[in-house]
Amino acid sequence: MNVPVQKPNQRPANSNFSSGPCSKRPGWSLDALQDACLGRSHRSKDGKAKLAEAIDRSRAVLGIPDDYRIGIVPASDTGAVEMALWSLLGARGVDLLAWESFGAGWVGDVLNQLKLDDVRRINADYGKIPDLSLVEADRDIVFTWNGTTSGACVPNGDWIADDRAGLTICDATSAVFAMDLPWSKLDVTTYSWQKVLGGEAAHGMLVLSPRAVERLESYTPPWPMPKIFRLTKGGKLIEGIFRGETINTPSMLCVEDYLDALRWADDVGGLSGLIDRATGNLAALEQWVEASDWAAFLAEDKAIRSNTSVCLKIVEPWFVGLSEDDQAATAKKIASLLEVEGVALDIGAYRDAPPGLRIWAGATIEQSDLESLTPWLDWAFAEVKNP
To answer: For 114, phi and psi rounded to 5 degrees?
Structure first.
């Protein structure tokens, strides 16, 4: 006999658990944008000052070395990654690491668009990461630090050789501001504003090491380079890009919102404070999963488990016995029930991932809201299992 689960009384104060764009910081309101440089050219003195401040504050919060360049580029993290792939690859062989949909997307672009010959694809299933010992130091490496759609991340940068000949190109968009990135191991790092700090979309960040700059100034790819991807002119880096002189017109409203998020990051203790908040959020979910008889982490190995995009699978025998299509439909019903109740928005698993749930646990989420959410997860599962 199935015992019904009572609908919980307490609701999360903030029901936004989307993995991108993720929730705004606690206490955010439109008042935070009052100082935006609107109705002005982004090339004006004030406009350039705002863009430069965004770069400087990013460097300070993340601890990016002084000799690394930081640029604001078009088209979110996708634009930043594509700029790196099109501008840097082809000089030597490349190892492509993929264990979820976004990493697989970069593999597809390198193979199908750039059509490189000397490519090794090193894969792993959702919830796991590839065998990092297979990576070779004389080859370029393209990888995501955190698999946003799988909830699995690399545990550290120890597997990257200090004396490598190749470049490391890292899509860090759901890891930056939540995980400790070893900058000396990363030659190109990309992220977007709408991820961990909850900024607004359409803007990407491109971080280049001196080794990456040297490659840009000494190597010319054999393919035509769209204007939006060009980082050099006359064989020299376009330094203005890394002072806030953007390739295209940025939204100064989005710039102001990013600045607000960076100031909030300082208020909560900088990078260590942000990491602590995300780690505490993951711990709250781990405590619930440990006691659950129906939910488990897609990333079973705690050493590679993401503290931002937490992906859950359903392991209850009734669910496991369903067809794959019915599993997907059931997981969607759970997410839909929670959305109808207004307690959790956008927590369905990514479309290419195994059926389940994905809950954002980054620093802009309050731990108390996750603790209020977990009884609702139990209620929704019981409602779907026993309609």
So the answer is: -80, -25
